[in-house]
Design goal:
This protein is an alpha+beta fold. The protein has three domains: 1-37; 41-95, Roll (SH3 type barrels), CATH 2.30.30; 109-244, Porin (Beta Barrel), CATH 2.40.160.20. 17% of the residues lie in helices and 51% in strands. The strands form two sheets. The chain has an eight-stranded antiparallel β-barrel with strand order 6-7-8-9-10-11-12-13. The protein has a two-stranded antiparallel sheet with strand order 1-2. The relative contact order is 0.11.
Length: 245
C-alpha cells in the first residue's frame, strides 16, 4: 500500500514539474517575438547615419514630426528632439503621430499627382504636373510666352527633389531638360530672329508656403540654358501655385 502511494506521489510530482516547464516554455515562446519586435528607435543629432545617436526610444514611442529633410524627419518625443530615418519609421508606422493639417508625405499621398501653375517675370505662363513613378519624384512642365516681337514655347521633363519640409513651408528643386521653340521674330534662341527649335536644360528652386497639405503658393528662381542655337541662358522669377489631387 505504501509502495502504491509512493508511486502516486512521484507521478503527481512529475506531472506538476512538466506542467510548470511547459507553462514556462509557452511564456518564453510568447515573449520572444515581442522582444524581437521591440527594436529601439534611434534619434540622431543630424539627418544622416554619420551623426551620433542622441538616445534610443522604445518602438512604441509617439513621435511628433517637426520638419523633413530628404529621407529624414526631425521629431519630438518624451522631451527629446532628433532626426530619424524614414526607412526606420516605415518599420513602426504606428509610432508617428502626425499633426493637422497634414504636411508630411506618406506612401499613399505622394503617389497622387500635383498640379503646378506659374507666372514668370518673362511674361511666361507655365503648367506642370508633379507625380511619382519608379520610386522617384518626376515633373513635366509646359511653358509659353508672348513677348514682342515673337513668342516662344518649351516643354521639359525631369526630377524634383524635396530638400526640406516643415508644417508651414517646404523647399524643393527641379532639374530637367527638353525642347524649346522660338518663332515670330523672337531672338530668344536665335540672334537673327529666325524660327529655332533647340534642346535645353532647366534648373529651378521653389520656396513654398503651405496653406494645407494639398494647396501651397510660393516663389521660384529658374534658369534655362540652350544647348544649341545662340547658346543663350535665361533666368527668371515666378509665382507658383501648387494643388495636389
Amino acid at each position: 500500500m505504501n509502495a502504491t502511494l509512493a508511486k502516486l506521489r512521484r507521478a503527481l510530482l512529475g506531472y506538476k514539474v512538466r506542467n510548470v516547464a511547459l507553462t514556462g516554455l509557452g511564456a518564453s515562446a510568447l515573449m520572444l517575438p515581442a522582444l524581437a519586435e521591440a527594436e529601439p528607435l534611434q534619434l540622431r543629432l543630424g539627418p544622416s547615419d554619420a551623426y551620433p545617436v542622441i538616445t534610443d526610444l522604445p518602438s512604441d514611442s509617439h513621435l511628433i514630426p517637426l520638419k523633413r529633410q530628404l529621407d529624414w524627419i526631425y521629431v519630438s518625443s518624451d522631451g527629446y528632439k532628433g532626426w530619424i530615418s524614414v526607412d526606420d519609421l516605415l518599420l513602426t508606422p504606428d509610432a508617428l503621430r502626425r499633426p493637422e493639417p497634414l504636411q508630411f508625405r506618406d506612401q499613399s499621398d505622394e503617389n497622387n499627382p500635383q498640379l503646378e501653375v506659374a507666372l514668370s517675370s518673362e511674361s511666361a505662363f507655365s503648367v506642370g504636373v508633379n507625380f511619382r513613378h519608379w520610386d522617384e519624384d518626376l515633373t513635366v512642365r509646359l511653358s509659353r510666352a508672348a513677348v514682342a516681337p515673337g513668342n516662344w514655347y518649351s516643354a521639359s521633363f525631369g526630377k524634383r527633389f524635396m530638400l526640406e519640409e516643415s508644417s508651414s513651408w517646404s523647399w524643393d528643386a527641379y532639374l530637367g531638360g527638353g525642347l524649346s521653340k522660338s518663332s515670330g521674330g523672337s531672338k530668344r534662341w536665335n540672334d537673327d530672329g529666325k524660327d529655332a527649335t533647340v534642346p535645353y536644360v532647366e534648373a529651378s528652386a521653389d520656396l513654398n508656403w503651405n496653406f494645407d497639405y494639398n494647396v501651397s503658393v510660393g516663389g521660384r528662381v529658374q534658369v534655362q540654358q540652350a544647348l544649341s542655337g545662340n547658346s543663350a541662358n535665361h533666368g527668371a522669377l515666378a509665382l507658383v501655385w501648387k494643388i495636389r489631387f
